[in-house]
Amino acid sequence: MTLRPSFLDVIDVRKHYGAIKAVDGVSLSVRPGEIVGVIGPNGSGKTTLFNTILGQIKPTGGTVEFCGEDITGMSPLELARRGVGRTFQTLQVFGRLSVRDNLIAAAQESKGTMPGRLFARPDAGLRHRSDEMLGLFRLEHVASLPAGSLSYGQQKLIDIAMAFMPAPRLVLLDEPCAGVNPSLVDELLDLLLALNRTQGGSFVVIEHNMDFIMKLCPHVLCMVEGRVLAEGPPAALQANPQVLEAYLGN
């Protein structure tokens, strides 16, 4: 079987703070439609890696390529317009806006020009897309409510739906299960698998919930002290003594 070419390539990326090597020569590739998991103990460099890929911080060295284009150090807005989205560990919703308006704002931010957004229709022509995402994330019944009035778990769903609202080709999700009620974790797993299946996007997912990551991701990297300790199918990492010692526990 011929593998599809990768469209995200992280090549020997480094981020050093003086003598501290937060990310130290990490490489990974993601192919269209692939879901890649990134695990590791706290302080292993996972979020710093995301931030260097997504332009939040400038890498000390290495290269990031997307669809064959060098995007190293490119701003998050520029990346969003190329089809790259992300979620953060902390919620990024607008509490006073309705759920629907949160979704519309997320799509507006990554598309068009400022004059185009100022003079567009109130729904920016995104009503149909917002309906689609509200239905997929089972948020139709709260569409008109202020996002800040909802439970943490519901706000987490809004936050993730916002990342997918512009129909990105690649989404980096930073701990999507953090703080989420266990009853909602299975729903989130099903949602991400459905998004991957129906919309064909690729995901890179940081997560501490091992059951979630092993069910979601066919390929997983384990980071320790800024480097990739091991990578491969979930079963291989679960059986790797170094990974067990460093992170999973015996």
Describe this protein's structure:
This protein is α/β, with parallel strands linked by helices and 250 residues long. It has two domains: 1-83 and 168-250, Rossmann fold; 94-166, no CATH class. 37% of the residues lie in helices and 24% in strands. It has ten helices and ten strands. It has helices at residues 46-53, 76-81, 99-110, 114-118, 127-136, 152-164, 182-199, 210-216, 234-238, 241-248, and strands spanning 8-17, 20-30, 35-39, 61-66, 69-70, 84-87, 170-174, 202-206, 219-224, 227-232. A six-stranded mixed sheet has the order 6-7-8-3-9-10, sandwiched between helices. Strands 2-1-4-5 form a four-stranded antiparallel sheet, with helices on one face. It is globular and about 50 Å long. The two termini are 36 Å apart.
The top level CATH class name of the largest domain: Alpha Beta
Strand content: 15-25%
Q: Largest beta sheet: what is the strand line-up? A: 6-7-8-3-9-10
Task: Tell me the CATH architecture of the largest domain.
Answer: 3-Layer(aba) Sandwich
Structural class: alpha/beta
Instruction: Let me know the CATH homologous superfamily of the largest domain.
Output: P-loop containing nucleotide triphosphate hydrolases
N-to-C terminal Cα separation, in Å?
36 Å
- Taking all Cα atoms into account, the compactness measure Rg is 18 Å
Q: Which assembly state applies to the chains in this document? A: single chain
Total separate domains:
2
What is the number of strand segments? Answer: 10
Mean pLDDT score: 88
**Count of helical segments?**
10
Report the CATH topology name of the largest domain: Rossmann fold
Helix content: 25-40%
Q: How would you sum up the global shape?
A: globular
Let me know the largest β-sheet: 6 strands, mixed
Report low-confidence residues grouped into runs of 5 or more. 113-121
Q: Tell me the series of helices and strands, N- to C-terminal.
A: EEEHEEHEHHHHEHEHEEHH
